[in-house]
Amino acid sequence: MSHFTTEQKANIFKEFGGNEKNTGSIEAQIAMLTQRINHISQHLKSGNKKDFSSNRGLMKMVGQRKRQLQYLSRTNLSSYRALIEKLGLRK
Asked: Pick from 29, 32, 34, 57: CA 20 to 30 A from residue 11's CA?
């Protein structure tokens, strides 16, 4: 599904989830989605404008991340603010 190596995923989960085994934390899930969104965005910008399947997948991931961010802002506002700052969202 995604083109990230196991080490890259482990680094993301370690940085945002506390350790590489904590793949279920909401912060780690949002960080992983953000990496995938950035990867597909680059693919579409680099001459693949008509790749409509990837574009649809991108839109679904953006919606999923938006819902997860809303959940995080409701449950833990300080963690939400730290995460969007760290990921560079909401400029």
From this structure: 57
